[in-house]
Design brief:
Helix content is 25%, strand content 20%. The protein is built from 6 helices and 9 strands; from the N terminus they run ααβαβββααβββαββ. The strands form 2 sheets. Strands 1-8-9-5-4-2-3 form a 7-stranded mixed beta sheet, with helices on both faces. A two-stranded antiparallel sheet has the order 6-7. Bound molecules: S-adenosylmethionine (SAM). S-adenosylmethionine (SAM) is lined by residues 68-69, 71-75, 90-92, 96-98, 113-115, 141-143.
Length: 268
Amino acid sequence: MPEQLSFKVMNLFPPFTEEAKSTDQKRRVQGGVCTTDITLSAYMGDNAEVFPKVLDLHVPKGAKIADVTYGLGVFWRNISPRDYKVITSDLKTGVDCRSLPYRAASLDCVVLDPPYMEGLYRRDNGHLAGSGSHSPFRRAYSNGQETATGPKWHDAVLDMYFKAGAEAHRVLKENAVLIVKCQDEVSANTQRLTHVEIINHYTQLGFHAKDLFVVVRPNNPCITRLKQQVHARKNHSYFLVFVKTSSPRSVGHHPIQNRKQVVRKRQL
Ligand SMILES: C[S@@+](CC[C@H](N)C(=O)[O-])C[C@H]1O[C@@H](n2cnc3c(N)ncnc32)[C@H](O)[C@@H]1O
């Protein structure tokens, strides 16, 4: 063994002295329960299956939650109405998520899921994505109205997320949670990583990106005419979890009820 290497190895495995032994005895023993029942960062499934896992991990029961882009309420299909105080709104019911009718610092959680693709923000209603046989898609994902002003194309998507994020920041309490659903997209042949763009902007707004969930579609995309594939077809989307905080270091130190409790099942 070369001399230098043998020196390094010696340092990695120091001799076992009495002093080392007493340090070893004080070594922290990992607490908790051995379990495989843990929340994962990626799931194959739909929003109704994954959203309850996001809430369960990050939002304490009894929290006051505003879903400001409620749509068809798919997110809530597997959640008991007894678990949270949920206030729902949508542009379709006359409430714009960029201007909410709630007091500043009054909510424990905001859920935001605006139209995530540029095809749903068009100056002309006739050019909106989801025409003809795809109309259920348009009904579920947009309010069906044209976007008359503001930025165009993918920048229109970001503009919506950015303004709604700022409004969520206003109505959330300190340390409260913002859950954002989004999907990346290729716009004008350019890869736009929407989730990165949102995280970067929200950090400047005063949010800490605490967690990220990937939702993978279980079904295959429909057949398309393709001369040459340039980008991988998106079959995943995200739930981003933000915490409104002036101190990102404090995010791990919420009161215990904000954490998922792993409990030992009673042995029968
Ligand atoms: C992707 S869908 C939401 C689906 C919903 N999360 C669900 O579980 O059914 C987007 C929704 O955002 C709504 N929307 C679009 N612009 C909005 C705005 N400025 N303010 C509030 N809601 C808006 C649309 O009407 C549509 O219902």
